[in-house]
From TrEMBL:
Protein's name in the database: Biphenyl ring cleavage enzyme
Extradiol ring-cleavage dioxygenase class III enzyme subunit B domain residues: 195-318
A matching Pfam family: LigB
GO MF assignments: ferrous iron binding; oxidoreductase activity, acting on single donors with incorporation of molecular oxygen, incorporation of two atoms of oxygen
Length: 334
C-alpha cells in the first residue's frame, strides 16, 4: 500500500531567487495597484499610513545586499530532506497564474494527468512581457534549456479513471483533468519544487492546480481542505508499495506581508487545526496570500497521517515602507 512519508509546505516566490536590490523592482507595480489586506483594499499610500500606525518594520536588506541568492539563507526543506525520504511519487498542490492555462479557461481545480510536462525558459518575447522583477528569478523555477519532465505516475500505480473515481467519492465530482497544458510554460508553483526542492532530480509527480488567484471561481478554504483529504484517501488506496511526498506550494502572506496571519497559519498546522484553516474567509485569501489555499489542500492530505514536524524557516521579505513584499515560510513533516 502506498504511504505518505513526507509533507512539505513551501513558499516559491521571486524573493527566494533574487537579491534585495531586485526585490525593489516590484515596487513600481505596488504603486499602481490596490492591495487586499485583512479583508479590505488599500492603495500604496494608504498602506504607508497603515504601516506607520501598526509600527511595521521598514524593509531591511535580507540577508545582505551582496548575496546573490538571499533565499538560500532561509532554512528550508530542500534537497537533503527530500533525498533522504527516497520518494517514488510526489503530489504537488500548486496554483497557476496564466502559465499553464489561458484566460479563456480557468478551472477551479485541475488534476494534471499528462505523462510529461514541457519545461523551457522564457522566450525573449515572454520575458519582455513580464512585470519588473519577475524574469530575474527565472533561474529558480525553470531549467536553462528546454525539455520534458516526468509527470503523472505510470498507469501501473495511477490511472485517470481510478484517480477521478476516488475524487468523486470524496465529493469532488467537478474536478477537471488535463493531459497537456494550454500554454507551454511551467507554472512557477511547480518549478520551484522541481528546481530548488527536488534539485532537478524529478520523480514522477501529480500536479494538482488550484485556481487561487482569479475570481469568480476560486475554491473556498474548506473545499481545498476537502480536496486534500480526498487526495490523501486516494493515495492510501494505491495497492503499490510506494513512498509518497505531498507538497503545498505557495504563500505566505503577500503582496502585503501580515506576520500575525502567518503565525496563525503556522499554529493551525502545528495543532492539526482543520477548522481554523477551513474557516478562513475568502476575503483574507486574495492576491498572493491566496496561494495558502495550496497549503490548506496539502494539510487535508497530511493531517490524516502520523507524520510530525514544524516550521523550518520563516522570513518576511519586505520591499517597501508600505509593508509590501513576500513572507517566505517552510514547514516539513517526516
Amino acid at each position: 500500500m502506498a504511504e505518505i512519508v513526507l509533507g512539505m509546505w513551501t513558499s516559491h516566490g521571486p524573493t527566494l531567487s533574487t537579491t534585495p536590490e531586485q526585490w525593489t523592482l516590484r515596487v513600481s507595480a505596488d504603486l499602481k495597484r490596490k492591495h487586499p489586506f485583512r479583508g479590505e483594499e488599500y492603495s500604496f499610500e494608504e498602506l504607508v499610513s497603515c504601516a506607520a500606525a501598526r509600527s511595521w518594520r521598514r524593509p531591511v536588506p535580507f540577508p545582505s545586499a551582496s548575496d546573490a541568492r538571499p533565499g538560500a539563507k532561509v532554512p528550508s526543506p530542500t534537497w537533503p530532506t527530500f533525498a533522504a525520504a527516497k520518494i517514488d511519487v510526489a503530489v504537488i498542490m500548486g496554483n497557476d497564474q496564466r502559465e499553464l492555462f489561458l484566460e479563456d479557461v480557468t478551472p477551479a481545480i485541475t488534476v494534471y494527468l499528462g505523462e510529461t510536462i514541457w519545461d523551457q525558459p522564457a522566450t525573449p518575447e515572454q520575458a519582455a512581457r513580464m512585470p519588473p522583477g519577475i524574469h530575474e528569478a527565472e533561474w529558480g523555477i525553470a531549467r536553462p534549456s528546454a525539455g520534458t519532465i516526468p509527470a503523472s505516475p505510470s498507469s501501473a500505480c495511477m490511472c485517470a479513471k481510478r484517480w477521478c473515481r476516488r475524487l468523486r467519492s470524496g465529493g469532488l465530482q467537478d474536478t477537471a483533468r488535463a493531459r497537456r497544458p494550454l500554454v507551454e510554460r511551467r507554472a512557477h508553483s511547480l518549478g520551484f519544487i522541481y528546481r530548488q526542492i527536488i534539485r532537478d532530480q524529478v520523480v514522477p509527480n501529480l500536479p494538482i492546480i488550484i485556481n487561487t488567484f482569479f475570481p469568480p471561481n476560486q475554491p473556498t478554504a474548506r473545499r481545498c481542505f476537502e480536496l486534500g483529504r480526498a487526495v490523501g484517501k486516494a493515495i492510501r488506496s494505491w495497492k503499490e508499495d510506494l513512498p509518497v511526498a505531498v507538497f503545498g506550494s505557495g504563500g505566505m502572506s503577500h503582496f502585503v506581508i501580515d506576520e500575525d496571519f502567518d503565525r496563525m497559519f503556522f499554529e493551525a498546522l502545528r495543532n492539526r487545526d482543520a477548522e481554523t484553516l477551513c474557516a478562513i474567509e475568502d476575503k483574507h485569501l486574495q492576491s498572493g496570500t491566496s496561494e495558502l489555499k495550496t497549503w490548506i489542500a496539502a494539510a487535508g492530505a497530511l493531517f490524516d497521517t502520523d507524520l510530525k514536524g514544524d516550521v523550518v524557516g520563516y522570513e518576511p521579505c519586505y520591499r517597501s515602507e508600505a509593508g509590501t513584499g513576500t513572507a517566505n515560510g517552510f514547514v516539513a513533516w517526516q
